[in-house]
Write a structure and sequence with these properties.
This protein is an alpha/beta fold. It is 44% helix and 22% strand. It has a 5-stranded parallel β-sheet, sandwiched between helices. Helix 3 (68-82) packs across helix 4 and helix 5 packs across helix 6 (126-133). The mean pLDDT is 90.
């Protein structure tokens, strides 16, 4: 039986986190893991969208134009539907979103920090930074 993984990322543009996620998905053991991706601010034109799709990894995305509250509602419905065993936030400021949508489910939310903790927390803003640090 394979483990259902859901990766949350800000977008699938040209950044280093996006590249790392792509390389992870390219090399992950698909007999053991069933990965899917959620892009918080999705655009079909993002560099890694087509590359990840070519790996036969499903991508779920929220348009940049909708509110954070609407994204959270859609994200929660998606998590309840997919039932991932692990939800891995690939971007610090989305750690809080991953934690919130897994509340009351069996999914394990894992947050990330890519640079230095204090600068990541400050860049995310007072409220989101402190919540994502939890």
């Amino acid at each position: 039986m394979s483990c259902r993984l859901l990766y949350l990322i800000g977008d699938l543009g040209r950044g280093g986190a996006e590249r790392q996620l792509y390389l992870l998905l390219k090399n992950i053991d698909r007999k053991r893991f069933r990965p899917q991706v959620v892009s918080w601010s999705f655009s079909e034109n993002d560099r890694y969208a087509s590359l990840i799709r070519a790996l036969d990894v499903p991508i779920h995305g929220f348009p940049k134009s909708i509110s954070t509250a609407a994204k959270m509602r859609r994200f929660r419905r998606l998590v309840l539907e997919i039932k991932p065993e692990v939800l891995h936030s690939y971007i610090f400021y989305l750690n809080v979103a991953a934690q919130c949508v897994t509340f009351g489910t069996n999914a394990i939310a894992i947050g990330s920090i890519r640079c230095d903790f204090l600068s990541e927390r400050q860049e995310a803003g007072l409220v989101r930074g402190n919540l994502s640090a939890q």
